[in-house]
């Protein structure tokens, strides 16, 4: 179980402190599939980075399986079973896709296992296994390989930051299926940051982050209808202003 | 073979024992052992130190190992090795120099290698340089490589220097005939106060010749690297020069590109980049459970592979 207690994150800017995350408390139960959604720039990715340890909260505490992990490094959190798929995966000259998957798994992976993960994200495995994870890959390809690196692990908590970004429509259905099976078979809990309704439809729980605050949280059944309502309201409002 | 000799040979030539095929092992400025085969003759030069390696036309799937090891301090070794590769031959040549300097005087090896590659012949050349030893004496390697390629020949050169060489000045010059193809890959890691200078000039003289020069280097600590690469297209040809360096700590790297077209049909491209390992790369690997040093090592070894 992951618990965020009164977590805030502030950065220094020229114009003074800028609050990115403001007093967020959130619980991600064991075995759950949680989707975090909300407007762009609302603080969702920062939340993911705070959980992974890439950023440290300015105040508040983060607990994982009852242990306070607020001060732990990325490496230490990874060793405790937390994984994170980047929104924009970094590229590595000279590092092959196969090596990257093996590094993720923590041991040299047999070819058929690597192929299985790549197929799971809609890539023809034999074309990619020995390709370098460098700038020659398109954004969508790199993104799918990034997702595959989390498939190669058995995690207590897997976090995906907008996995759908850059993925074409044709591959998206397959990706949704992969998420379904991943949450069932591989990882204990999954957090996905997403705007996609089809990903949201997989969720047990949802949280809405806007303006750095936790706006609402609950089951999918509770939250999804309010999101649609909010969208309609905003549109109506804009429509009226336009008049 | 002594233990130190075999360790050095393993490091530079991947040799666990006496290799198959033709070989010549040079130790501390003198020949240690040699074998010629029916198709590959190795003979001592009569006018200067060094050997001629003569590969008969049509020789295929054979190899030549010519490693040099220096285990004493104060050795200054200059050697001329000439390779004559007959028409249609296809051979692997493994060279390299390993220096173990346990003393306080400098030990140096300057290997002047000249390749005459015949029509339609193919050569794969692997050269590894390595230095070690607890002494304060410098370990210096200044190789000169000259390549002359006849029509439709192909040459792939892999030149590697990973750790332990205090100072190196590498000069490589190639001339390509019609349809000839050259691929040079240079991989270099410097650390401490080491200095490395590499000059590569490729002259594409024949129509439809092509060259690819790839350099991947890592400069750590306060080491210095300088590269002058020049591809000269004198005919309808293609050349691609690509230099990539990772810079760390207080190191300096200069990459000075030169491309020259003396024909309107020459297509020559140069790409160069110098940069440090970025934080996202380190963080990504740390999310797999690697610590920062391990992540750095993975990035560097992948880059130099």
Task: Describe this structure as you would to a colleague.
The complex is a heterodimer of chains A (243) and B (305). Chain A is α/β, with parallel strands linked by helices and 243 residues long. Chain A has a single domain (2-242), classed as P-loop containing nucleotide triphosphate hydrolases (Rossmann fold). Helices cover 39% and strands 27% of the residues of chain A. Chain A has nine helices and ten strands. In chain A, strands 6-7-8-3-9-10 form a six-stranded mixed sheet, sandwiched between helices. A four-stranded antiparallel sheet of chain A has the order 2-1-4-5. Chain A starts with a strand and ends with a helix. Chain B has one domain (3-275). Chain B is 10% helix and 57% strand. Chain B is mainly beta. In chain B, helix 2 (279-286) crosses helix 3. Chain B has helices at 3-13, 279-286, 292-304; strands at residues 22-27, 30-35, 40-44, 50-55, 60-65, 68-70, 76-85, 90-100, 107-117, 122-132, 139-141, 144-149, 154-162, 167-176, 181-190, 195-204, 209-219, 224-233, 237-247, 252-261, 266-275. The model of chain B has no long low-confidence stretch (mean pLDDT 93). In chain B, strands 1, 2, 5, 6, 8, 10, 13, 15, 17, 19 and 21 form an eleven-stranded mixed sheet that branches. In chain B, strands 3, 4, 7, 9, 11, 12, 14, 16, 18 and 20 form a ten-stranded mixed sheet that branches. At the A-B interface, helix 2 and helix 3 of A face helix 2 and helix 3 of B.
């Amino acid at each position: 179980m992951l618990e965020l207690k009164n977590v805030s994150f502030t950065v220094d800017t020229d114009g003074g402190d800028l609050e990115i995350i403001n007093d967020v408390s959130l619980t991600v139960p064991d075995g759950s599939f949680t989707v975090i959604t909300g407007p762009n720039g609302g603080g969702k990715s920062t939340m993911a980075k705070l959980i992974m340890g890439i950023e440290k909260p300015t105040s508040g505490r983060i607990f994982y399986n009852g242990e306070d992990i607020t001060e732990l490094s990325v490496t230490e959190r990874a060793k405790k079973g937390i994984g994170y798929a980047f929104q924009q995966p970094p590229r590595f000259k000279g590092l092959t896709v196969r090596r990257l998957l093996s590094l993720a798994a923590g041991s040299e992976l047999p070819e058929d296992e690597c192929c299985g993960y790549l197929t799971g994200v809609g890539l023809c495995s034999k074309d990619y296994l020995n390709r370098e994870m460098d700038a020659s890959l398109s954004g969508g390809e790199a993104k799918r390989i990034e997702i595959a690196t989390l498939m190669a692990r058995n995690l207590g908590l897997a976090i995906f930051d907008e996995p759908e970004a850059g993925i074409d429509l044709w591959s998206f259905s397959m990706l949704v299926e992969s998420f379904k099976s991943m949450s069932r078979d591989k990882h204990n809990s999954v957090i996905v940051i997403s705007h996609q309704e089809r990903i949201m439809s997989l969720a047990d729980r949802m949280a809405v982050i806007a303006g750095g605050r936790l706006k609402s949280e609950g089951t999918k059944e509770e939250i999804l209808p309010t999101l649609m309502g909010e969208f309609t309201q905003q549109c109506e409002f804009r429509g009226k202003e336009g008049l | 073979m002594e233990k130190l000799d075999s360790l050095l040979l393993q490091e530079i030539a991947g040799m666990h024992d006496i290799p198959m095929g033709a070989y010549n092992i040079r130790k501390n400025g003198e020949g240690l052992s040699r074998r010629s085969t029916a198709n590959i003759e190795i003979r001592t030069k009569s006018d200067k130190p060094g050997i001629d390696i003569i590969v008969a036309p049509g020789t295929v799937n054979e190899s030549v190992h010519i490693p040099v090891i220096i285990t004493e301090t104060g050795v200054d070794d200059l050697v001329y090795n000439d390779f004559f590769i007959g028409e249609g031959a296809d051979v692997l040549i493994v060279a390299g120099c390993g220096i173990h300097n346990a003393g306080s005087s400098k030990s140096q090896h300057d290997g002047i290698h000249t390749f005459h590659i015949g029509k339609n012949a193919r050569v794969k050349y692997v050269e590894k340089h390595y230095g070690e030893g607890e002494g304060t004496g410098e370990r210096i390697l200044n190789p000169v490589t000259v390549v002359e390629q006849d029509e439709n020949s192909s040459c792939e050169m892999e030149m590697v220097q990973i750790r332990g060489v205090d100072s190196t000045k590498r000069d490589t010059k190639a001339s390509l005939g019609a349809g000839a193809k050259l691929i040079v890959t240079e991989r270099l890691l410097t650390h401490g106060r080491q200095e490395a200078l590499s000059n590569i000039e490729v002259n594409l003289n024949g129509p439809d010749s092509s060259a690819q020069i790839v350099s991947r280097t890592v400069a750590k600590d306060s080491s210095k690297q300088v590269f002058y690469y020049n591809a000269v297209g004198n005919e309808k040809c293609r050349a691609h020069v690509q230099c990539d360096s990772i810079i760390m700590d207080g190191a300096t790297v200069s990459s000075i590109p030169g491309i020259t077209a003396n024909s309107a049909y020459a297509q020559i491209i140069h790409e160069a980049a110098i940069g440090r390992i970025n934080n996202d790369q380190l963080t990504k690997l740390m999310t797999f459970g690697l610590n920062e040093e391990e992540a750095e090592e993975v990035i560097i070894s992948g880059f130099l592979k």
